[in-house]
Amino acid sequence: MKVHWGAAVAAATMAIAALAGPAAGQAPAAGSPQANALAARAAQAAALVKLQARGEELFNARCKGCHMPPVEHAPSRTELAAQFPNVISDALKTGKMQPMAAGLSDEDIGAIAAFVTGQEPDARFDLTGEARNACPAGAKFNPAGPAWNGWSPDKQNSRAAASTTINTSNAAKLKVKWAFAYQGGRYGEPTVVGNRVFVTSSSGQVYALDKATGCVAWGYRARGPVRVTVSVGKNPKAASGWAAYFGDMGRNEVAVDANTGKELWTVNIDPGPRGILTGAATLWGDTLYVPLSSFEESVASLAAYECCKQRGAVAAVDTATGKIKWKSYAIPTAPAPFKKNAAGTQMYGPAGGAIWSSPTIDPKRGVLYVATGDSYTDVEEGYTDAVEAMDLKSGKIKWAHQMTALDHFLVGCPPQKPGVNCPTPAGPDFDFGSSPILKHLAGGKDILLAGQKSGGVYGLNPDDGSFIWQTRIGKGSALGGVEWGMAADNANLYVGVADRGMPTLSALRLTDGALIWRHRAPEPAKCSFEGRCGNGYSGPPSVANGVVFGVNQDGHVRAFEAKTGKLIWDYDTAGTHYETVNGVKNQRGGNLDATGIAFAGPMAFLMAGFNSYSSTSGPDNVLLAFSVDGK
HEC string of 104-154? Predict the structure, then answer.
């Protein structure tokens, strides 16, 4: 068996050599401090080698099939090796890889982490060092001023900046004013309210930073990884009168005082062990509408697993108390037994319909809109890969329009060797990962806009979900089509497509879906960071005063004239190394995915390094604060 010697073993070996003393070949006296230290280091190294050998066996049995070579969304073996052990352990214990760790002890999980990373299983990035640039004592949160609050400045999810001075005349002059580096790999979009910027990441650390300088006002350690975007609003229970809301991958929604980070309440949204929170909660009045998604797609090969029971949902949470007012599942029918798999394990359905993105509010009709993911089982239903309208007061589904029927899909179901729980036949994995957008048209009518991984974009009647128009903007795939979002102004809908071979950012006319302009990403993809390099526009665009900003997997953020599609600015986040305000030297950016650029006043904020594809040895993420000429 091949044993991989990692950084911890190498360090121990070097330390043993250093302790050997100046006389070459001379052994230290038995019982001496040098001899005892040598014995301890040797035992530590031997224990790690043994642990890694066990980890390699487990990795080969449970993980290798998806990571060597990588399939679908899975990171490569090299990308896994760049992580800290606690990141691997968290993914197996509470994250997306939890199904693959079924039946494993904490020691087994630690062994896998030690093998994958080459480090002691308890090695971790020093999070305390991230907050070394604390704000001056007495600095307080001031909510007044420009804002980008939550996934979109408006709750109709247009992603159009309402309070920025960045426009067509100065966008090309944007430069980095300051940078803040931190660990995590996946993160939420920056939220900007008043004098604070709120950021999250999969390290579980949540920060409030000063907007002008990047100093740390406070940090909060969540109960699990956090990849949602923060929402900020008034709260009578907070000493400051304001609270910041966010959720973690353990399905816990949390409220903290926006001034101090002191926890006000926490509530678990759903008891299902495969549920996660990925979409930003939408704050409307005294209610927080929290979307529930799922990683149950990863159970294809688990013969003893009763696949599948997890459903997407929306929970309405009282902002003052954290109590759940109502919860509505995207698939209203509860899962029930329908057949047994080849191993004799009972299977259930319907399941799926994960809600990956932020709900959209329609106060005129008293409803919210969500878009759902695929189905996990062969049980037919009409609510997956759909756009739905739910009553704001009760959660009752008013209507649902399913775009792709029979999209039954689990990760790890190749035709040549499908897992024991795989649907038959496997669907195309055409989730909706992006929020619907509600727009008011010049003629007085409203339109609801939705984009799907199939490459389809739809204009719907918000009264009943019927088609107004539909346009195919890409060929679509499991990792293509419209992934994480769109943006709109009063004339056009701006749509990024992540299709391999045809990655584009396009403008479609709101009224009929006609193509106005299309930009094709440079090919072949060229990235200024190590690791997997793509060029899809999978992250959501943003709009600011006639400028459309697109974020690309190649690490570039590009700005275009909204009317014509003319390129006016192109910035490679990984092409520059940053001296960050929290003391990280030579930090660089990485790929851009899942979140976009946020604007407030004269500044713009963008996170780079999603998914750790940059394979850096330090912090995964860097928050870049832009301003005109960097002033």
Answer: CCHHHHHHHHHHHHCCCCCCCCCHHHHHCCECCCCCCCCCCCCEECCCCCC
